[in-house]
Amino acid sequence: MTRPPKARQKVLDAARRIVETRGAGHLTFETLAEESGVTRGGITYHFRTKEDLLKALIEADIADWNAASEQLGGDAGMPCPKACRMIGHVRSSLADDDDAHKRFVTGMISAAMVDPQLLDPVRTHLAEEFADWRWDDADLERYLLLLAADGLFWNQLFNVSPLPPAARPRLAALIEAKVRAFAADAPPPPESPNSSSGT
Question: What's the burial of 59, exposed, middle or buried (CB within 10 Å: 0-12/13-18/19+)?
Fold first, then answer.
């Protein structure tokens, strides 16, 4: 007898609900079986350990964030792929008003503090995301803008930002304008040695 193809997703969805409502510390295979309707054997078929499950949750969250970021950056109408990725990153960081997602991130923080290896998917994602950066002065200034957007996200997540809500869109627009200015000032990419000279 084959397992239902959607069992893995049912487990992930149920695990996410548990993390959002009760925190990662309350995520056990017993509570997961109750929440998902998948047997414990079915759960361990897909996720041998709780760590495997938590990493899969983080990977799914990264994939969702990437999709949203790509869509938001693709709408920026800029020819530079790096600038589009940056715009998507900034918009995703500053537009996250999804309370369920905030609860999920908060719920995962305590688990990552206990087991820092849970953040390996994040480390892998960031290494890939920044693989083409040279980390010259211009890239450092671009990264400073990303850090500003990330800082606003964490300030809002923990509800510690002194920034008035009415000023938040203006600051977001300012960060995005600076990203666009960097893209406008960037030199064109070097020509490929295999490209035709046209002469």
Answer: middle
